[in-house]
């Protein structure tokens, strides 16, 4: 099945929220009850300053009508980081313990998930590139669970786009798992993860 990738405005995202949360629990391997518990947070995020999102949809090719937008199969969103946000304060605490500070001008990549059936086709990479292409902040920050040898799709994707370590094995309040916080300066170049070096 073909897919189509498009930006979502916050209203469209809220309309598609149950589907987006469905993709999230499938991708993360969480039980379906998690959809209900995360819905208020995702809804609230969509009202934050600088929210933007990109999604992939199944796109059945219709004779004469071209591509249609079918079920949502991948979601990527984030917003401008700011004091007072839970994630900002958590990361600020981790950095503060090391005498460091959060950058003042960053976008938080909050969620990036591709339905398992659609993984490994470049959709996650394309969603993240499209998401970052429209951002005006000087950098992007995210957190991802630590995994041995950084051996999963998320780590490979972030490393391939040039993300580097901000915090490692960090414990967010209320979650026993260690996380990494990663960042990347913006803008991304068109090809490859790294900024082009002047020759
Ligand atoms: C992380 C995640 C979003 C990546 O999405 P994805 O669509 O599978 O990623 P991509 O297809 O762009 O890249 C994955 C692999 O496909 C390969 N690939 C890229 N473009 C491709 C293409 N056109 N055709 C085939 N394979 C391709 C990449 O090289 C990559 O290979 P690798 O994993 O061996 O390095 C997805 O795996 C996911 O949802 N995981 C679970 C949820 C999760 O961990 N989210 C992040 C939490 S922080």
TrEMBL record:
Domain N-acetyltransferase: 3-187
Gene3D superfamilies membership: 3.40.630.30
SUPFAM superfamilies membership: Acyl-CoA N-acyltransferases (Nat)
Domain of life: Bacteria
Coiled-coil intervals, chain numbering: none
InterPro entries: Acyl_CoA_acyltransferase, GNAT_dom
Keyword Amino-acid biosynthesis: no
GO molecular function: acyltransferase activity, transferring groups other than amino-acyl groups
Keyword terms: Transferase
Pfam families hit by this protein: Acetyltransf_7
Sequence intervals crossing the membrane: none
Protein name: GNAT family N-acetyltransferase
UniProt source species: Dietzia natronolimnaea
